[in-house]
Amino acid sequence: MMKWLIGVDLGGTQLRVIRTDHRGKIHAQERVPTAAADGPTAVVEQIEALINAVTSAIDRAAITGVGVGAPGPVDPVAGVVLETPNLQGWRNVPLRALLEERITLPVTIGNDANAAALGEWLFGSGQGLHHFVYVTISTGIGGGVIMHDQLLLGRNGGANEIGHMTIQRDGPVCGCGNVGCWEALASGTALARAATLALNRGRDSLIPQLADAEPIKAQHVAAAARRADPLAQRLIAQAGELIGIGMVNLLHIYAPERIAVGGGMAKDWDLFAPHVRRIVVEDAMPPYRTTPIEPARLGGNVGVLGAAALVTQHTGLAAQRDRP
Amino acid sequence: MMKWLIGVDLGGTQLRVIRTDHRGKIHAQERVPTAAADGPTAVVEQIEALINAVTSAIDRAAITGVGVGAPGPVDPVAGVVLETPNLQGWRNVPLRALLEERITLPVTIGNDANAAALGEWLFGSGQGLHHFVYVTISTGIGGGVIMHDQLLLGRNGGANEIGHMTIQRDGPVCGCGNVGCWEALASGTALARAATLALNRGRDSLIPQLADAEPIKAQHVAAAARRADPLAQRLIAQAGELIGIGMVNLLHIYAPERIAVGGGMAKDWDLFAPHVRRIVVEDAMPPYRTTPIEPARLGGNVGVLGAAALVTQHTGLAAQRDRP
Looking at the predicted structure, is the pLDDT value of residue A259 above 90? Predict the structure, then answer.
């Protein structure tokens, strides 16, 4: 009998639910705008309805479990969503218990960055590796880490806040309150800020034209760089170097076999990659220099497939729950 | 029957071998100056002789195994010492095979920082924890990490080069070639260098008197700070802050239940601790701020007890060795 995983990607704007097989092939999917303003119960009802929709054609006994990837900090052992910046009234929500009550299937909750890492490891660029780091670079920087074939969670699931490594101790203040975090220097937000600053000083560039009266984003800088805009090319080089400094840290800390990069910035990875590579070759110790740093492979499905992959963690998490 | 672990601490100047029970109580020990200039074979013979000495009174069948902690990079899966800065002619030495040939006991080789982490976790300040970080701060900064009750090794045992996180991207060049490493800024060597620099500029201080014509070391700065020397106190505060920045990174990266500090600087931890704590409270995200950061507990025995603790990793490493 075919066995199924259900993946639930709980985003601030969109809720996606899929049914996938154990190889990461999606057989059914549904999506709705998240009822973000209506509190947890409304969202739990949405999730239930979408799970029913993607499982209507199959025997529910063939479902291994349901994985939910949630934004913000999650306690995966307790199954509690601690906080979600984009969902109203979500604080210490026992999402696993709420869902298990309704759907009578084993539920595993995880942080979306950890879920994505697990998804890429099982179904994407990390397949077959023992040590694997997934980095997502978009408005912020997050990630997840597999070492010795295990997702690293740490105390209360708090590990791998890799965006909040200080890489410049006298650097800009980060949203987290710390100073000089990797995220504050090398995220898409930081790149957009650097571009805006340069343009406000009157630098000539294609960027404003490509942004077309919208606020400038990292993707506009990348688009301008593709048209050989000198300011954009310089900004991309700087961003690539800053990304590279954090990558050197990740190589020295985790010694992975591969680093995969997802998130909005990964779409333009070919632009950043040569600058990242230069920093890695200059600054990393010799055994770490050749580690591949490549775009993630699951693209827009990394959220839902990652959520589905969380199901594979269920047994381990249950064991931790039962420990003294 | 009592079961025994043998721990071998292979240092550049001293070779120590102990016999301990499985609770970390030492029942026999031997030490000799390491035959550092005579090549691997001479040292292997020394190790064999000391193991014979500490096991002469017991039945060898009661020995679980032998663990060897070696300085510098080690491939724990292959059992090979890749390089040791202080031992002549040691490059890619298959120490496990060389020893197993002579002593017919299972041998596990590990990097000394990883060994120390494991020793503190099993027998010292990390007892009973699932997630634990050990940091050694002396001439350099190193460490080892236990997560989910497992020593993190990474590809070829290269993980946890925590001294080589960049914390100041435009900082001083490190011995590893990178720029602004934690080790380059916050080690005992860095503190001694900062003191020497200040004194060369004519600052008045007790430090030179305490160093007594020897080159200034971190311990002299600490001793002067204990006598309320203003320059020394300021240097200690700066060093504590720099140590603290790296600690914030470790908290965000590993989310441990405790960080233990060993190495020469740990002897004066009471001086650094308030400055470290201040930075952690200011800069770490709220859930990480209360994590204890405390001196390690095994003191001078951390090397040998850590080496003995490596024996407990034997099964896991053998499994990795056998994997495709």
Answer: yes
Q: What do you get for the CA distance between the two ends of chain A, in Å?
A: 37
The shortest C-alpha distance from B196 to chain A (Å) reads 23
Nearest CA-CA partner of A296 in A263, A248, A274, A251? A263
Mean pLDDT of A29-40: 94
A293 vs chain B: nearest CA distance in angstroms? 15
- Cα torsion angle, B52, B53, B56, B59, sign: negative
- Interhelix angle B230-254/B269-283, nearest 10 degrees: 50
In this structure, the strands spanning B132-137 and B141-147 are antiparallel
Q: How far apart are CA B156 and CA B144, in angstroms?
A: 14
Give the whole-angstrom CA distance, residue A194 versus residue A184.
Answer: 11
> Is pLDDT above 50 for A324?
no
- For residue A229, give every residue at least 6 positions away whose Cβ sits within 8 Å of its Cβ, in sequence order, or none: A205, A206, A207
- Chain A residues within an 8 Å CB radius of B249: 165-166
Q: Per-residue pLDDT tens for A86-121?
A: 788 889 999 999 999 999 899 999 999 999 999 999
| Predicted ipTM > 0.85 | yes
Instruction: Say if CB B245 and CB A171 are below 8 A apart.
Output: no
Separation of CA B88 from chain center: 21
Under the banding of pLDDT at 50, 70 and 90, the label for residue A322 is low
pLDDT at B319 over 80: no
Torsion sign across C-alpha atoms A225, A230, A236, A241: positive
CA distance B140 to A307: 41
Give the rounded distance of the alpha carbon of B308 from its chain centre. 14
A256 vs B: CB within 8 A: yes
Q: Please report which residue ranges of chain A form alpha helices under DSSP H.
A: 39-55, 95-103, 112-123, 182-186, 188-200, 207-211, 218-226, 230-254, 269-283, 302-309, 314-322
Amino acid identity of residue A243, one-letter, is I
* Helical H segments across chain B, by residue range: 39-55, 95-103, 112-123, 182-186, 188-200, 207-211, 218-226, 230-254, 269-283, 302-309, 314-322
Residue B165: closest C-alpha in chain A: A249
Residues A38-50, mean pLDDT to the nearest whole number:
95
Which pTM value belongs to this model? Answer: 0.93
pLDDT band at B324 (very low <50, low <70, confident <90, very high): very low
